[in-house]
Amino acid sequence: YVAAHAEERDDQGHALVVRNGVVGVDMNMRMVRRPPRAHVLAAEAGRLPFTDSSFDAAWVKRRLMPLANPGGVIAEMARVVRPGGRLVWEKLFRTVEWRRMTVNITDVARRAGVSTATVSRVLNRNYPVSDGVRQRVMEAVRDLGYVANAHARALLTSTSGTVGVILHDVSDPYFAEVVRGIQEVAGLENRLVVICNSLREPGREITYIEMLRAHRVDAIIMAGGHILDDEYLMALREQALQLRAQGSRLVLCGHHPVRADAVVPDNAAGASRLVRHLLDRGHRRIAHIAGPQNLSTTQDRVDGYLGALASYAVEPDPALLVAGDFTRESGYDAAGRLLDARAGFTAIFAVNDLAAVGAMARLKERGLRVPEDVSVVGFDDVPVARDVTPALTTVSVPMVEMGRRSMRLALRDPGAPHEVVRLETHLVERGSVAPPPEQSGS
Asked: For position 157, what pLDDT does the model report?
């Protein structure tokens, strides 16, 4: 029966696999019931053409990838008493197709000849093991391309090792600097950072928080000013409570509208200092290109602008306060509107450096010189402020340090009390400010 129904034979013609896999024989022609899957696959693999650098990809995908534990089966294939069996196994581990499969900690343990507990101790570095064992485990990890399952680790340890960061605009250099500080600390602490770009849409911010909570992140950092909307703030407060109950933290980088950890720069004081610098140089007709009206950062900087004018007994002119946003294009457009309105200004204070650069470009197009005809100042001190001509006078916000502090707060114990860190800003004088021309106006 065996001889008549065999589908696979070894090099000596001995039957290895029988139809339906019900009956088989070992290498000594002894009858066995249902040969082990590893034996069957080893017999198949031994007949496939392969070179040192490649293997039959179709066979690997068809016969190995559908298995629940391909690594364990391949490891057992090495035990097959058959010439070349171990060679087949070794070559399988080196194929691209194999490395795409899921390797688990049991496969690593089998490869290294240790227990799964020992592998876990080596990878987590939480228990002493001998150098020889550590070396064998790490060699197995490299050979198999093993990567720990983050979701499984989160279930076991109640920590995912991941921190979510929600930004207003990933293309804004301000947020790039904040993220640089966040990543700096995250790298030292072996944490993964997931970036979400909200585009200043309140609904999208809340949705991102819920998505990150579903992924069991250790903390969420929200960078940028908060949106001035009662419904949004109520939802944000609820999310902060849910995160704390979940064992996570909410850190607000740049604003502090709800009860949570926060890192806050002094925007109002920085704006006041900047406008007073213009007032000290003799300017009284100071235009302000503001940010979006529904954002706390905009309000803080407008408050600083108005406070500085009041301290010099200068009556604010509504015609000199124009709306924009934080982009170069908005500064360019707003400067054009001010010029078209013939508002008679001698200086422009832009909500940030990008808007200031746009305003400078529009002034130049209209034949006006900076600072001889119009002085221009920005805010934040992003790298471009040093590179324009003339270099931009601005207020330096410690963006990288804000990111560092935010990440340190995010990594604190979830039960630690809330902490608010306030960081000062300072004036950076460059070449874009001069006394007003003799004839006021533009």
From this structure: 52
- 306 vs 99: CA distance, rounded Å: 63
Q: Which of 303, 384, 288 is nearest to 343 (CA)?
A: 288
Q: Locate 384 and state its tokens.
A: 């471009």
- Number of other CB atoms surrounding residue 329 within 10 Å: 13
DSSP string, 343-382: ---SEEEESSHHHHHHHHHHHHHTT--TTTT-EEE-SB--
First to last CA, the chain: 104
Its sign, for the CA torsion 267, 268, 271, 276, is negative
Confidence of residue 237 (pLDDT cuts 50, 70, 90): very high
More confident residue, 307 or 3: 307
Residue 239: pLDDT band (50, 70, 90) is very high
Mean predicted lDDT score pLDDT of the chain = 81
Is the separation of the CB atoms in 320 and 345 below 8 Å?
Answer: yes
Please give the torsion angle defined by the CA atoms of residues 428, 431, 436 and 441, in that order, rounded to the nearest 10 degrees: -100
Element (H, E) at 192: strand 192-197
Confidence (pTM): 0.69
Which amino acid is present at 394?
A: T
